[in-house]
Amino acid sequence: ALRASFAPRAQKANQNFQYSLQPQAAFKVAVLGAAGGIGQSLALLIKMSPLVSSLNLYDIENVKGVAADLSHCNTPSQVQDFTGASELGNSLKGVNVVVIPAGVPRKPGMTRDDLFNINAGIVRDLVTAVADNCPDAFIHIISNPVNSTVPIAAEILKQKGVYDPKKLFGVSTLDVVRANTFVAQKKNLKLIDVDVPVVGGHAGITILPLLSKTKPSVSFTDGEIHELTVRIQNAGTEVVEAKAGAGSATLSMAYAAARFVESSLRALDGDGDVYECSYVQSDLTELPFFASRVKLGRNGIEALIPSDLQGLTEYEQKSLEALKPELKVSIEKGVTFAQKQT
Ligand code: NAD
Ligand code: LMR
Asked: How many whole angstroms from 342 Cα to the centroid of ligand 1?
């Protein structure tokens, strides 16, 4: 069987995540923006999961062919396509996990915040439909700028009277995936063993890898810490520049998003040992949204894990204080946008 190797915390997902004709659970997953660069690869990875019985693919265009193609894979889930606003509601009925990678990606020279004007409205409309059709679902927001789109989603859900902060997630898994890869390369460690918590947000200096909390315990020089931190913070831009106008990370993002979906499904299925980093409503700092490790369970977030933020090094503590003003502005920008919609 072909196996995808997720990171250590997802080891159980690895065991499940293989070609299989035998469904092990019957969860429904919807991908909104499924014909895009992330959407297509993510749909393929979700199609490989034996925990999924229905995979609903929604986009404003080009999704029919993607679904026809994917539906020929002999894995348990049934694939259905939904095109355009008139079919959006049906794509969401009875869904357990909604993943949202819809929206425009960066080109060289742009910040993630430069995507706000287009993507804020897309996320608003899609989350409105989620509120109307599957308000109990776990919602995974990938569309950038995540630091603002998650607060937008929260406000929309509040306006609809269905906000459950335990079920709204900004997908920051790619930051963890990158941190694990770069640390393992730098220190010659076995990839499967390495786990670095990444906290804060998902843009530039708001991405804060806590290298002192790396498992297994590793010692870094000050130079290594600075070099690795900056590389992890700029990894998205590294890909945007390499793609030279053709978009941003799609394959590594799909891999990371599939890991987060698989973790969510395992939690929904009753696994009591599921932890992931995610950008969520939080009281770990004075900011209302903050990425940290969270424990996932059947009802969403069971606990935020505060211990990662305790005993930080001076470098990490300073970086944490430095990211707060930028993250605060991005959160407030999202909240203000959503509140103007009423
Ligand atoms: P893409 O342009 O390849 O695909 C986007 C898809 O969204 C397209 O198929 C498009 O038709 C669809 N779309 C546009 N408006 C829509 C709407 N209203 N409803 C449904 N679908 C709609 O872009 P991509 O490379 O897949 O990136 C998508 C988003 O993900 C971007 O905003 C990008 O910045 C973000 N992203 C986030 C992370 C992260 O770590 N969270 C990583 C990579 C990319
Ligand atoms: C990433 O981190 O790769 C994404 O947020 C896409 C981007 O614009 O960098």
From this structure: 25
> Which atom of ligand 2 is found nearest the CA of 202?
5
DSSP, collapsed to helix, strand or coil, labels residue 303 as: strand
Residues 6+ apart with CB under 8 A from 307: none
**CA–CA separation, 13 and 276 (whole Å):** 12
User: What's the distance, CA 14 to chain centroid?
Assistant: 18
pTM of the model: 0.95
Q: pLDDT tens, 114-172?
A: 999 999 999 999 999 999 999 999 999 999 999 999 999 999 999 999 999 999 999 99
CB of 120 within 6 A of ligand 1: the answer is no
Confirm or reject: Cβ of 177 under 6 Å from ligand 1. no
Give, in degrees to the nearest 5, the angle at Cα 292 between 108 and 40. Answer: 50
pLDDT tens for each residue of 190-243: 998 899 999 999 999 999 999 999 999 999 999 999 999 999 999 999 999 999
Tokens for 327, please give them. Answer: 């993250």
Using the atom order of ligand 2, give the atom closest to the CA of residue 240.
9
Catalytic machinery residues: 202
Q: Cα dist. 43→35, 68, 221, 248, 292 in Å?
A: 9, 12, 40, 18, 26
